[in-house]
Amino acid sequence: MTRGGLIGEETGAALQQVRTEPIQQRSAARLSGLLDAAAAVVDEVGFDRITTAMIADRAGASIGTVYRYYPDRVAVLHALHERAVVRFRQRVVDELGASTLTSWWDAVDCVVTAFVGLYRSEPGFRIVNFDDRDGAPAVDAVADADFFARRLADVLVNEFDLPAGDDLIFRLEVAVEMADALLARAFHTDPLGDERFIAECRLVLRDYLDRFYSPQALNLLATAS
Amino acid sequence: MTRGGLIGEETGAALQQVRTEPIQQRSAARLSGLLDAAAAVVDEVGFDRITTAMIADRAGASIGTVYRYYPDRVAVLHALHERAVVRFRQRVVDELGASTLTSWWDAVDCVVTAFVGLYRSEPGFRIVNFDDRDGAPAVDAVADADFFARRLADVLVNEFDLPAGDDLIFRLEVAVEMADALLARAFHTDPLGDERFIAECRLVLRDYLDRFYSPQALNLLATAS
DNA sequence: CGTCACCGAGTGGAATTCAATCATCCTGGT
DNA sequence: ACCAGGATGATTGAATTCCACTCGGTGACG
Predict the structure, then answer these.
(1) Are residues B56 and B106 in the same domain?
(2) Distance from CA of A134 to the nearest CA of B (A)
(3) What is the pLDDT of residue B3?
(4) CA of A24 vs C1' of D3, distance in Å?
(5) Domain match, B128 and B173 both
(6) Residue B2 lies in a domain
(7) Domain residue limits at A33
(8) Beta carbons of A188 and B142 less than 8 Å apart
């Protein structure tokens, strides 16, 4: 199933951010418990007021336990970021499966919907943007966007016969960056998301991609070759 | 001169971030020296690993001196941010003056050019993005984008007769967010800026705004009313 | 000689470590 | 099957380190 590839359990972008892989089952819950706590704390006190003690407290663990699994404070945020990205991809897959797709646009629309949905439902999702420039998770943010663009390109090529190639990937990455910026802006003030920016985001994406991948543009491309 | 308004010495966004206004001349240089040091450190160790001690060291001052002028660590970043924004506006004005503007597009182009130029020449400019979401200067980042959009709107209205109003401001803010995201992406890996993303940024901006403000669109608007 | 600038050891709180302790799993003997 | 008891994973929290920020003392300028 090509769509499932979006989730991607490949190790390419994966990272060993956990010091020790949990062996016993009790600690499996600890890990996600710590992340849940971190997410809750982020939403409560904000991104830069987090303390490791708060996370430990909220998770019902001691400080040492936090450091058993994560090398330092920012690694916890990294992990939270990663988990949210995975959930985002899962949500995109769900959206794609629940909708009847008649053109590539429907797929892009699903991505936007998934993104907006997560912003609304996932605690701490705000810190998770693909392109946070300066904060902790910054390093591999672009790698995430790039990775996602590649996967999305696969889907669009396989299901809607868009022309594969670097151009498509590049344009999707451009689209991802723009969408991320506009949606982040939509949620900057309004916790439910400013509909104006969300709508404009869909419009911009469609216009931009239509320029290259509208039926007309594709026809021109086909007859020219 | 309407263009000069872009620089904006209004007190609306200004802030009393310096504790003590320097009285003696020697300390005038100290202030900018501290900011230069901060900028250098930001470029070297990254945004979240900055240390007040590092800044003091680099500036050849002691910690106490930093705190003489700035109330706390983030105030230094704020000041750096503010200085960069002022320089950006100045550069935009310079670009506008040095170019012959035949349409609003040339003005937008100048803004992009100024932005790219600063990215290349100004140390620490990366932290200065309009829309840093989580880091310290995040609070008024959107306010900056909004402010800049308003000023730019004034210029475009006065010089190119674009229809004034909230719609124009909103669209310019959308444009600013998109441009910022794409240019940040352009400079994420390549210190000189990936030309592909820069070019695509110009294209996206033009297409987006053309939709509403191309001569044809404006004519339609005029005849309809 | 009174300010203005500057210094840098000192304070407090948060981040991180680590040696001790507890819990769980494993193994081999009965 | 059962269980003792070592081996190893998991947890703890006091101790340590790091870092932002203060403040009393020292020079420099006018």
Answers:
(1) no
(2) 6
(3) 60
(4) 22
(5) yes
(6) no
(7) 16-71
(8) yes
Q: Tell whether B64 and B89 lie within a shared domain.
A: no
**Most A-contacting residue of B133, B148, B167 (CB-CB within 10 A), to test interface:** B133
Cα-Cα-Cα-Cα dihedral sign, residues B16, B20, B22, B28: negative
CATH number at residue B65: 1.10.10.60
Q: Which residue does chain B place closest to A196, by CA atoms?
A: B170
Q: Are residues A220 and A155 in the same domain?
A: yes
- Same domain for A88 and A61, yes or no, is no
CA of A63 to C1' of C16 (A): 9
How far away is chain A from the Cα of B134, in angstroms, using its nearest Cα?
6
Residue B142: inside a domain, yes or no? yes
Listed residues A71, A91, A107: the one ending a domain: A71
- Nucleotide closest to A70 measured between CA and C1': C16
Residues A217 and A163 in one domain: yes
Give the tokens for residue B224.
């309809």
Tell me, yes or no, whether A104 and A204 share the same domain. Answer: yes
CB-strand contact B67/C, under 7 Å: yes
What count of other Cβ atoms lies within 10 Å of the Cβ of residue A64? 8
CB contacts < 8 A (A, B): 94
Residue A1 lies in a domain: no
Nearest to A178 among B48, B189, B204 (CB): B204
**pLDDT at residue B95 greater than cutoff 50:** yes
Total number of domains in chain A: 2
B174/A182 touch (CB, cutoff 8 Å), yes or no = yes
Burial call A117-150: b when 16+ CB within 10 Å, e when fewer: bbbeebebbbbbbbbbbbbbbbebbbebbbbbbe
Same domain, B60 and B154: no
d(CA A42, CA A40): 5
CATH, residue B129: 1.10.357.10
CB contact under 8 A, B131 and A200: no
A127 touches chain B (CB under 8 A): yes
pLDDT in tens, chain A (225 residues): 555 566 654 433 334 456 665 555 666 788 999 999 999 999 898 887 899 999 999 999 999 999 999 999 988 988 898 888 889 888 998 888 899 999 999 999 999 999 999 999 988 887 766 544 444 445 566 778 888 899 999 999 999 999 999 999 999 999 999 999 999 999 988 889 999 999 999 999 999 999 999 988 878 877 776
Q: Is B47 on the interface with A (CB under 8 A)?
A: yes
Per-residue flag: B63 CB under 7 A of strand C: yes
Domain-located, residue A11: no
Confidence of residue B49 (pLDDT cuts 50, 70, 90): confident
Checking A67-70 for CB contacts under 8 A at 24+ apart, the result is A67/A19, A68/A19, A68/A20, A69/A18, A69/A19, A69/A20, A69/A22, A69/A30, A69/A31, A69/A34, A70/A17, A70/A18, A70/A19, A70/A34
